Amino acid sequence: MPLIKSYIPTKNIFKIQQLLSASDLTMRDRDDLMELFFKAEDNELKPVVKLFDKNPDWIKKISENYKAKRSAFANNNYNIWQNIFLEEENQLKELL
Q: Rounded to an integer, what distance in angstroms lies between the CA atom of residue 76 and that of residue 56?
């Protein structure tokens, strides 16, 4: 079994790329999110496409959360990590 998963771009990843390109994120932030989404399975991307398409403001929210998580992880800061997840949980409750 290969260590690196082969990747064939899907309709959902192309749609996410289009939505990110239309956003006001920096090129760096778009690239970071695309790197994250490339790791996901196609069926995991469907709700992301739906969310971003319905409300593009979520693109920035997801980007900010992802950057915060990366920073907390890099700094080995459990308290910040926990706060990020609590904030994310509250944001997700808004969707319901």
A: 31
Q: Where are the domains of the chain?
A: 11-95
Q: What is the C-alpha to C-alpha distance for residues 86 and 78, in angstroms, rounded to an integer?
A: 12
Q: Which pTM does this prediction carry?
A: 0.81
Closest CA to 87 of 64, 57, 70: 64
pLDDT tens digits, one per residue of 11-28: 999 999 999 999 999 999
Is 81 within 8 Å of 69 (Cβ atoms)? yes
Is 77:68 a contact under the CB 8 Å cutoff?
no
Size of the chain, expressed as the number of residues it contains: 96
